[in-house]
Amino acid sequence: MSAPQQYPHPPQPGYVPQEPPRKSWFARHKVLTSLGVVAVAIIAITAATSGSGDGPAQEAREAGAAVEAPSDVRIGTPVRDGKFEFVVHGVEAGVPSVGTNEYLTERAQGQFVLVRMTVRNIGDREQSFTTSAQKLVDAQGRQYSVDDMATMTLDSGTPFEQINPGNSIDAAIVFDVPAGVAPAVLEVHDSVFSGGESVLLQ
Fold first, then answer.
1. Which of 28, 44, 169, 174 could form a disulfide with 150 if both were Cys (CB 3.0 to 4.6 A apart)?
2. Full-model pTM
3. Domain residues of the chain, as ranges?
4. DSSP letter, residue 113
């Protein structure tokens, strides 16, 4: 004898079937959501760095023009960028090497250009002076970075130094440029992200 068939119970009055909960759009598209977050982060970082790095010297370089400084910003004239005030005291080109002896000597690939300056903190908190943030530009608009090893050998210091508000330091920085190149402009920066100001060296 076969078992009696089972029939579902009829729904009770007022019963509303419950649909299974649906996942949100973000949960169903995890890959697209992740890519969107990354894209927003990249846009934010790019906007922040590009905004803080724009300045007269950088805009001139991007336009392909030789960088020029205002006529009154020359050696011996104070100029400010961010929280620092710079005074360039002198520039010496054509130096073949720097160092105190055969064990502590750096030789130039081309020629060393030595720039001596005073850096004063005009802000209200300590600020790190970074030698590698400074740039040298020749008459053709070509930009040269600091030779950190030669700078440390010459100045017996570190690539960066903390300066408290109101204090100042004397610094000597070294650039390695091709022989025969005449330095035209020094770009001074209070950080690697600042717009910078230009000082005529000729």
1. 174
2. 0.66
3. 56-200
4. E
Give the integer Cα–Cα distance in Å for 29 and 72: 59
Mapped onto helix, strand or coil, the DSSP state of residue 44 is helix
**DSSP-derived 3-state class of residue 53:** helix
Q: What is the DSSP letter of 99?
A: E
Query: Using the 8-state DSSP alphabet, how is residue 29 labeled?
Result: T
Residue 108 burial (CB count, 10 A): 20
| CA–CA gap between residue 16 and residue 19 (Å, rounded) | 9
Q: How far apart are CA 159 and CA 147, in angstroms?
A: 10
56-200 maps to which CATH number? 2.60.40.1240
Distance CA 186, CA 145 (A): 11
Token pair, residue 48, equals: 């922040």
Q: Are 38 and 180 in contact (CB under 8 A)?
A: no
pLDDT by residue for the chain (202 residues), tens digit each?
555 555 555 555 655 556 555 555 445 555 554 555 444 444 433 333 333 444 455 554 454 444 554 557 899 999 999 999 999 999 999 999 998 777 789 999 999 999 999 999 999 999 999 999 999 999 999 999 999 999 998 876 667 889 999 999 999 999 999 999 999 999 999 999 999 999 999 8
What is the C-alpha to C-alpha distance for residues 99 and 174, in angstroms, rounded to an integer?
12
